[in-house]
Amino acid sequence: MSITAPRDSGWITRTLRRHPWLSEWLIFLAALVVYQGSRAIVIGNPTLAFTNAGGIINWEKTSGLFVELSIQQWLLNHLVLTKLLNDFYMVGHWTITPLFFIWLYRRRRTLYPYIRNAFLAANGIALIIYIVFPVAPPRMLTSNGFVDTLGGVSQINLHGGMFSRWFNAEAAIPSMHFGYSFMIGVVGALLVRHWALRLLALSYPVLVFITITGTANHYVADSLAGAVVMAVGFVGVQLWMVLWPRMQPYFRARFRRDPLPLDRSA
Q1: Full-model pTM
Q2: Contacts of residue 165, Cβ cutoff 8 Å, sequence gap at least 6
Q3: pLDDT (tens digit, 9 = 90+) per residue, 10-46?
């Protein structure tokens, strides 16, 4: 009778130890599924989303920030550029951000965990805002003069087909398109040494702002909110790093199980 050796169940742990970058891919994959999946399945309130959008427009007009129509009108006079920005809107967000984190992991390993955690924290904050404060994007407010350049110029329909499963039509604010670019621009400019690379890093959020505003996918307020949410993510993680070492001994003492008393009656 032969005895079969127990199946080795630790191969995953050993593989991750040999290739730690796999853990990072799994973390980002899980975050992407949760973030995009949650945005897609949130049952929104269209009436409230349009009401909130109107409130944002009124606030921008009062604050002198309502420049979306001017930017878009200029772009509509340059349709080739508009189409390029439409394509950039659909592709750039999903390629530049991963490339940034790959570069960060390879070149700035000590800073990588902090920036990654801040990024994930900011996305968590954004997801909560999408749920409690739905906002219709400008492209849906055609009565206000906005034009859906994705559909009208590039024939890209975010409200039907496969895209509708990944885009929440009522999640305009905050703009994490701009939030991500703001993070990449600031962090990149601080970490690279050559002035040309710093200028390139800082120009990225400017390009994203023109893209998302001119194509009527976000309001100016959305970009401002995206930058604030990203900054809050960084501040929150920094506070956690400072406070948790001081709080850890208390929680360990509070939740540690005391050993069972010995039975001396035996």
Answers
A1: 0.82
A2: 40
A3: 665 666 566 566 676 676 677 777 766 665 555 567 8
Burial of 175 (0-12, 13-18, 19+ CB in 10 A): buried
Residue 191 CA to residue 162 CA, distance in Å, equals 38
Torsion angle defined by CA atoms of residues 105, 107, 110 and 115, in that order, rounded to the nearest 10 degrees: -50
Distance in angstroms (rounded) separating the CA atoms of residues 149 and 210: 13
pLDDT top residue among 29 and 150:
150
Helix H or strand E segment including 37? helix 20-41
Find tokens 């960084």 and name the residue: 234
Count Cβ atoms within 10 A of the Cβ of residue 56 and give its class: 0-12 exposed, 13-18 middle, 19 or more buried: buried
Using only C-alpha atoms, the chain has a radius of gyration, in whole angstroms, of 24
Q: Which two tokens stand for residue 9?
A: 């169940």
Q: Which two tokens stand for residue 167?
A: 């885009």
Ranges of each domain in the chain: 44-243
First to last CA, the chain: 45
